[in-house]
Amino acid sequence: MNYAEVTQNARDCIGPYCKACPVCNGAACRNTMPGPGAKGTGTLAMRNYQKWQEVCINMDTICGQKTLNTETDLFGKKFAYPFFAGPVGAVKLHYGDKYTDQEYNEILLRGCAQNRIAAFTGDGTDYNVMIEATSAIEKLSGQGIPTVKPWDLDTIREKMELVKRSGAFAVAMDIDGAGLPFLQNLNPPAGSKSVEELREIVKMAEIPFILKGIMTVKGAQKALEAGVSGIVVSNHGGRVLDQCPSTAEVLPAIARAVDGQMKVFVDGGIRSGVDVFKALALGADAVLIARPFVTAVYGGGEDGVSAYVDKIGSELKDTMRMCGAFSIDEITPDMIWK
Q: Which residues form the FMN hydroxy acid dehydrogenase domain (predicted)?
């Protein structure tokens, strides 16, 4: 099974909103919420994708032949590639009735673990989503990263206990989820967090804490002040605030400001191994990819996940060879042209 077959299969079962497009660029699903589309004008998901396409690669094949190694280290664990499956929640709402959140998470986590990468799992208004996600991670001896929504501190404390029980090697919070329409006016409440509150959440976690939803140098500096272990440069796929810049546009300045003091991930419109290479050259340590992994699960289950990982991994390896980079550490800013 290749990824083209996976996307073809997914079109029959992924629900009315997502079209399982050959290239997931946000165009066919704009303004579909529920669904995978972006908020407001619906253009930010497309901008995320397009800005990666405007970054070009500097080819250089005048170099000695060496064994190519795509492995990366993250919080004491070694992974086959510097890309991971991003968190997706409420799959029945956004992608149709084929899977529950539990079924989706279990397939995604197993598929990623089999291919030596990790998956971030989502959270939701249904408390069972986090219970089931952390249970699935526990079955894989902690090989996964649960993502907690920015609830009130008491609810976060309860969910952190589930995270600890799972043995997860890291935990994340998509703080930009405060802008999701379905989280407004809820009980328990969800919303933005102060540096002091984040510092308390970091202490609750007791494992590396990743803050997702950073789009400015100022935000990255606040995250550093709070003591987080990593950030994800992310505008939530365009789903929380219309007319932001793309993640490709803001990543370089944020990576420079962080200067290696914590891990920097990036997501938003990354759709190929070439895009992964560009993100690393612009300063990211690793990337997250979300929507295409949904297509992979719906179109082929664990085999679909393997097909997608193989596709992205092969493209990354080919790009590295053609630029004279034979390990992730050898990918440098001079290998791209903007």
A: 37-338
